[in-house]
Amino acid sequence: MLALSSILVFVTTFVAVALAVLIAFFTLQRLRAEASAEDVEEMLAAPALLRANSLSTIGIWSKVLERFDFMEMLGRQLQQANMTWSVGRFTMLMLLAGTVTLAALSGMEAVPFWASFLISLAVTFLPYLYVLNRRQKRFQRFEEHFPDALDSVARALRSGHPFASAMEIVSAEAEEPVASELRQVTVEGSFGTSWEAALANLCARIPLLEVNLFASAVQLQSRTGGKLNEVLGKIAENMRESVALKGEVRALAAHGRMTGIVLSLLPLFIAGMMMVVSPGYLVILITVPLGKYLIAAAVVCLILAHFIIQRLVDIRI
Question: What is the pTM of this model?
């Protein structure tokens, strides 16, 4: 077991150093290319309308990632979470976290190998759970501020501004993350991209029903005409009612979430108290080989129970 731990530590260190050298090499090459360009100032001042499609700056790793279809979904989720990391860097972080955890746990005789593997697998997906959580919170903030932005667009249209000018005005005054998303739509619609394509990109970045209704209303008005300001006002009103209802549901489900957290931490608290009051009572679980498997199974069951309870109280409307 000690030999396996040493091998894993060596492989992890080698991979980390190799990645650092490759990243430094490609960064140096890119800086040299930018320094030798004659129009470097114009390139820095121009708006970034084009995005790199490469999953990673390391060619070999990028080709490996391109073989998996879900990497495109991962890249979209990173963008929706407003993270600037590339898919290649993020997947490297996940693999490095899992490998280091497995190497550290393999050297502990009290932890079985299968438990070490499960824990390292869970640690591997922790960054992905962080991205999903950050993405969900960003969507919630967008839902809270988007009705005000729609009202502002409706008032600008009512006062005689064209749609492009109204979007530009609102994008400069709205709250984040609505301001950045509307600003990107304005930039795309003003620099060669059609408004339909710009709104479709907004729906892809923010996959909310209200955003789809907003894009559909704008596209329908551009084809058939009508009072777009009234439609946007109705959408904003309905969205406020939806946000209020979701807030009430989250408040009612907060008790269930707190109960799940207490039930998940209570066994650990009781075990700690018993180790203080009667240390010999639980020592048998550590000294006996079967006890190690029982401890690992109990920890896994606690984690699964926590996620099941959180899933039960996650009421979606």
Answer: 0.66
